[in-house]
Amino acid sequence: MKKSAPKLSSDYTTRDRLLDAAERLFGLRGYDGVGMRMLAEEAGVNLGAATYHFGSKDALYIETFLRRFRTMNAKRLRLLRQAEEEAGANPLPVCKIVDCMIRPLFQSGLEHPSFQLLLARNLFMPPAFLHEAIRKELEPNIMEFHTALLRSLPGMPDNLLHLRTMFGMGALLVFSVQMDRMPLARDATFNENVLKEMVHFISAGLQSVSPPSLEEWLPVPFPPDFERR
Amino acid sequence: MKKSAPKLSSDYTTRDRLLDAAERLFGLRGYDGVGMRMLAEEAGVNLGAATYHFGSKDALYIETFLRRFRTMNAKRLRLLRQAEEEAGANPLPVCKIVDCMIRPLFQSGLEHPSFQLLLARNLFMPPAFLHEAIRKELEPNIMEFHTALLRSLPGMPDNLLHLRTMFGMGALLVFSVQMDRMPLARDATFNENVLKEMVHFISAGLQSVSPPSLEEWLPVPFPPDFERR
DNA sequence: GTCTATAACCTGATAGAC
DNA sequence: GTCTATCAGGTTATAGAC
């Protein structure tokens, strides 16, 4: 018998219980793999109360995702801007930009392991009804990082950078899915080393000299949208 | 015997129709996102006939996946062994090994776009009932490529190579999901250049000099298994 | 092998008492 | 805000006629 009450304080509302339960279950089994009844049971609340607080399953899913995704993206931009300010007029080292990009995601994985699965799921193959929310939340972020990278990689074609950034995101996402099986969160300096290794891998790919010509490449949208329903 | 004859109506059996429909729909919407009724309708066959031919939804899903996954992996190994034979006693260049690893996957994406989505899905976050089949099919493959890479990257710690290979797989998977939106399959030399760029990105990361020490790293299983049901 | 009918259960959503 | 009861429709799987 498993009791699901992460925070035992008295202001742990039905709403919060539901969001936490949804984070766990949606992350583990995906949108279609979990029903409202299962969510209500996991949260220890009534089924009727569940639909009352969010109106629909879709709305609950969206809110569950955005709750942490928003703050994570804000932190990303904050780190980048801060680094740029400190660097003054000089372009940032590529590995510094990549660090700002993935550090908040890495940290989020340590603090909220079950959200990490949901995040990876939604950036890899988001349900269609979530796609617009992701785009809106992620686009300004992507643009600012893209600009910063272009400044530090003079001569790199726009499209090639898009492609390589996509590769880097892939490395990050697969890592995210595996994070909770790794011996992390034990030793802070060890964690830092793993993060550095990932930053290093991605930076090496971004900075490498391209072998072929890809002049007719088209921009790659990310993440993709799929048909559903 | 009966090679895949996707549209020739004469021996395009109910079984094959179902597999093709399952490939499309499962790839697009995932295991939980598609019902047997939907599959039967898409395949243009009766619902009763659907369960008759495979016994269960799980079995249909597994067979749909393995049908192409098996031949893809065989081709991977064949390319690697052929390259090793040609090289004689010399260790292969890393980019050559990576090429053997991802070329069949790339090609498969050109030939069977809807399978590519299913493949990416299952390597990224496979349903639990599929995990054993994947492991059994993929493990010998991974081991042989891992050995080849170690030979070409002397001094690289086992665990670090596992980690970096995981990064590379991530790059590949995200690319797979986006393939059908790219201007590929038009010009063969263009396709080849895109493939080379991916090989190049991954090889750069694999070969790069590591910044921190990760001596206590543990082997990373891939792909992950999740609880379901 | 193919089809219909149906069993047994789960789905999201809602109406209305408390 | 929380609960019960219920809706209309979905799910997989099976039994048995053709």
H-E string of chain A: HHHHHHHHH
Number of domains of chain A: 2
Average pLDDT taken over every residue of chain A:
88
* Rg of chain A computed from alpha carbons, rounded to a whole number of angstroms: 19 Å
**Low-confidence segments of chain A, ≥5 residues, pLDDT <50?**
1-5, 215-221
Any idea what the CATH superfamily of the largest domain in chain A is called?
A: Tetracycline Repressor, domain 2
Give the overall form of chain A: elongated
- Name the CATH architecture of the largest domain in chain A: Orthogonal Bundle
State the major sheet of chain A: none
Give the C-level CATH assignment of the largest domain in chain A.
Mainly Alpha
Helix and strand content put the structural class of chain A at mainly alpha
How far apart the termini of chain A lie comes to 35 Å
Helix count from the secondary structure assignment of chain A: 9
Can you tell me the CATH topology of the largest domain in chain A? Tetracycline Repressor, domain 2
In total, how many beta strands of chain A?
0
Helix share of residues of chain A? 55-70%
Largest interface here, residues on each chain? A-B, 57 and 57 residues
Note the quaternary state here: homodimer
- The fraction of residues in strands of chain A falls at under 5%
